[in-house]
Design goal:
Elements (H helix, E strand, L loop, with lengths): L2 H14 L1 H20 L2 H28 L3 H5 L5 H33 L8 H25 L2 H18 L8 H7 L8 H26 L6
Length: 221
């Protein structure tokens, strides 16, 4: 793998989407500050904007960087399939992670202040954050493997909906977990750690599977 070429392709993708990324880099911390210092009404509005930003990054970022690129021109350069796939995976993560990190910093504040939940709910917030990251990795993998805008949008939307659809089912979890999440101290139960570990392994496996499947493609044109 040609690492300098991968780095060049990543920088190219980031520069193409620099204005959208810059807007998110400036806007999201500002939204987070407002949510941290304001009342519950502004916090709810900020959370809506945060979720919309996550949805934008999860669905439209892969469409712009993967499906919207002119592959015949890119592959006419001295770029191997491995270089191309690695640059798309690395560039996408570098673009998505800043938004995800801001969201991770703000979510505990909203959980505690807006929803009147104690620090015991932080493990639940961590699971939601892990689900968002896993959802992005899966959506990017679909975009790279199938090269279909329709499939990318459908899978992205279904995964976003799935994250919210699972929330009402939390009431069916064991009483011990629900009591811990309502407590004043965050308790990282074995079930929570196992869930986070499984989601991390699944995200890593998705990245590896995407890399292997796409780099074996006969033609990228």
């Amino acid at each position: 793998m040609n690492l300098p070429m991968v780095r060049t392709l990543v920088i190219k993708d980031l520069r193409i989407h620099r204005w959208a990324l810059l807007g998110l880099a400036v806007g999201l911390p500002a939204i987070g500050l407002i949510m941290a210092l304001s009342n519950s009404g502004w916090q709810r509005l900020g959370m809506i904007l945060m979720f919309n930003s996550m949805i934008y990054m999860q669905i439209f970022l892969p469409i712009g960087t993967i499906l919207g690129e002119k592959k015949p021109f890119i592959m006419s350069l001295p770029v191997s399939p491995s270089d191309y796939v690695a640059s798309k995976i690395a560039g996408g993560l570098l673009a998505f992670l800043p938004t995800w990190i801001v969201f991770a910093a703000v979510l505990p504040i909203v959980v505690e202040r807006d929803f009147a939940m104690a620090a015991g709910a932080l493990p639940l917030a961590a699971i939601v954050l892990a689900a968002c990251l896993l959802s992005y990795v899966a959506t990017s993998g679909i975009a790279l493997i199938f090269e279909s805008t329709l499939a990318t949008v459908l899978v992205g939307l279904l995964l976003v909906i799935a994250v919210f659809a699972v929330m009402p089912l939390l009431g069916r979890l064991p009483d011990r977990l629900l009591q811990n999440w309502a407590g004043e101290v965050a308790i990282w139960d074995p079930e929570v750690l196992a869930t986070l570990g499984a989601m991390g392994l699944l995200a890593a496996a998705t990245i590896v599977a995407t890399f292997v499947l796409v780099r074996r493609r006969v033609s990228f044109i």
